[in-house]
Design goal:
The protein is α+β, with helices and mostly antiparallel strands and about 160 residues long. Helices cover about 25% and strands about 30% of the residues. It is elongated and about 55 Å long.
Length: about 160
């Protein structure tokens, strides 16, 4: 098995995508996060206003920024011109939320890492903004749900 980010001497390299075709590519990542009853009890109309501002709205903006900064955080990711980012946060019961981050591009490389980064930064922002209420919050799962474009399409349920 060979890794695309290693050269013939097993040293790190950035994959050369110059010969790839430009195609429409999307990726959707999902995170589930335990906030706990204590935190969720403070929400009104699916939002919590804190001294730092509205939690979900702020976290969505942070997630979008995370997508745009992915190549600065993960060494082998290419800087990309992102076409669109959509972050959605849902309260699923009295203790848990789920976050989805969908990223779209027309390019030569996929946006899986951007979607995964976006969903993680969204979660971390929620944690930061709610930690004065409880520090028992937990990011339980982060996964790639769907990828389209490029060599293969993936759908993980």
């Amino acid at each position: 098995m060979s890794f695309s980010h290693l050269n013939s001497k097993n040293n790190p390299k950035m994959v050369n995508v110059s010969d790839k075709n430009i195609t429409k590519r999307t990726a959707v990542a999902k995170a589930t996060m335990f906030l706990g009853k204590e935190v969720i009890a403070h929400f009104t109309n699916d939002e919590l206003i804190t001294k730092k501002g509205p939690v979900f709205q702020t976290a969505i903006i942070a997630g979008i920024q995370g997508v745009k900064k992915t190549s600065e955080l993960i060494p082998m990711c290419h800087p990309l011109l992102i076409n669109g980012v959509d972050v959605d946060i849902n309260i699923i019961d009295n203790e848990n939320i789920e976050i989805f981050c969908k990223v779209t591009i027309e390019g030569k490389t996929g946006v899986e890492m951007e979607a995964l980064t976006g969903v993680n930064i969204t979660c971390l922002t929620i944690y930061d903004m709610c930690k004065s209420i409880s520090q028992k919050m937990m990011i339980k799962e982060v996964k790639l749900v769907e990828k389209t474009g490029g060599k293969s399409d993936i759908k993980n349920v």
